[in-house]
Amino acid sequence: MFTTYNEALEWIHARLRLGIKPGLARMEWMMEKLGSPERKMKTVHIGGTNGKGSTVTFLRSILEAGGYSVGTFTSPYIEQFNERISVNGKPISDEEVLELTNVIRPLADELEETELGGPTEFEVITAMSFYYFANLNQVDIVLYEVGLGGRFDSTNIIHPIASVITNIGLDHTNILGHSYEEIAFEKAGIIKEGIPTFTAVKNANAIKVIKEQAEKKHAPLYRLNQEFSITSHSPQTRGELFTLISDNQTLQQLEISMIGQHQTENAAVAVMAAQSINLHEEFSISESAIRTGLKTAYWPGRFEILSKSPLVIIDGAHNDEGISALVHELSTRYSNNNIHIVFAALKDKKLDEMIAQLDQVADEISFVSFDFPRAAEAIELFSLSRSKNKVIGEKWDSHLAKLIQRLQPESVLVVTGSLYFISEVKPYLCEFLKNNAISL
Known about the structure:
The chain has 2 domains: 5-296, Mur-like, catalytic domain (UDP-N-acetylmuramoyl-L-alanine:D-glutamate ligase, 3-Layer(aba) Sandwich); 304-435, Protein-Tyrosine Phosphatase, Chain A. The chain is 41% helix and 19% strand. It has 15 helices and 17 strands.
């Protein structure tokens, strides 16, 4: 038995040593021991390469605006571990984490002695969430974000009322495959028999695979630019404006507060999923709830403006597709500004392609490392850059402090890369900006 939150957290994080172990057998074993809690809740399953967290947030916010209690399971966290299991956007308490860990720990120890082997960190946290929403805090609906892939992800034992695949990119290729078709097959593994699926995938080869899997499962499929589309998109100072057209209706002038054209796609998919949920007799989601939910949705670390003067932005662009979206927004919104980028990443990403894109938009670029097992060294990132104005920041915190203090009025500082890096950076930057009386 753990007696403190910190003890519980240390045990959970220590399971990172087991790495990634695809497969559902360990989850099924634990769920059977717990009385199948995953079957005692209404869920929506959300997968994809990028945009999962934002889509979860849009959908959660819409449902909340409709008066429903909404659980979420997301990863990784930005500010605190507890965020991973939340209710109406509020992380569970330290006491609840401790209680849940003490429930799962004996199962993990018992499982360790079987031929299946012990559960991974992610499997432990997923099991904790199932137990929590089934037994400790029953909510109207739970939104489950896929951890990795889909088909063999530990969340894929749920029986959702809707499935979402946000988009598909060439990420985690060492596990999921090296082509869009292979990765699409893994992501499409969350499609369930007869359950409507909504997707913003645009790659033709990927969407073909998803369509094939949906047909095999007799699952209605709703595709961006096919069954629904976005028109009249207009970037705003603090968000986006767009119109959503579907077979059933047209929603004009929808407003979101998250920045980026890609966020309109995440929002559109969330709206389509909400309208599908609305078909269940337990739910009644009005157009007003959709509009309010979209406008008030907030997800930290995604093109988030931390201060206006100087202009400081953080963005968890952790793969090639995320970097592309970031570069597009910087080119569109800040083409007349001096852009300084600070970048840190995990070494298993396509670093050369990511840095090549950043080089195109950055007037200056800094490379840093951070304390994480899979983090790339700053010198490695530096060597991949062809920028004429590149530097290595020996310590990311002191380097950021110096950059902010010498930023010119026309400059913008963008801190980007791994979400694990952003989770370390954000609390530090918020404190630094506050202590130095920076205009937020």
